[in-house]
Amino acid sequence: KKRPLVLGIESSCDDTGAAIVDESGHILGDALYSQHLIHLNHGGIIPPIAKDLHIKYINPIVSQALERAGVTPKDLSAIATTVKPGLPMSLMVGLLYGTKMAKEHNKPFIPIHHMQAHALTVRMVEKVNFPFMVFLVSGGHCLLAVVKDVDEFYLLGNELDDAPGEALDKVARRLKLRNIPGYETLSGGGAIEKMAKLGDHLSIRFPVVMTQTLNCNFSFAGLKQRAQEIIQEEEQKYGIVADEIIPTVANFCASFQYAVARHMIRRLERALIYAEAKGFIPERPKSMVLSGGVACNEFIRDAVRQVCNKYDYELFCPPPKLCTDNGIMIAWNGMEKWIAGKGITKDIDSITVENK
Ligand code: KG4
Ligand code: ZN
Question: Where the protein is mainly located, per its record (predicted)?
Answer without folding.
Answer: mitochondrion
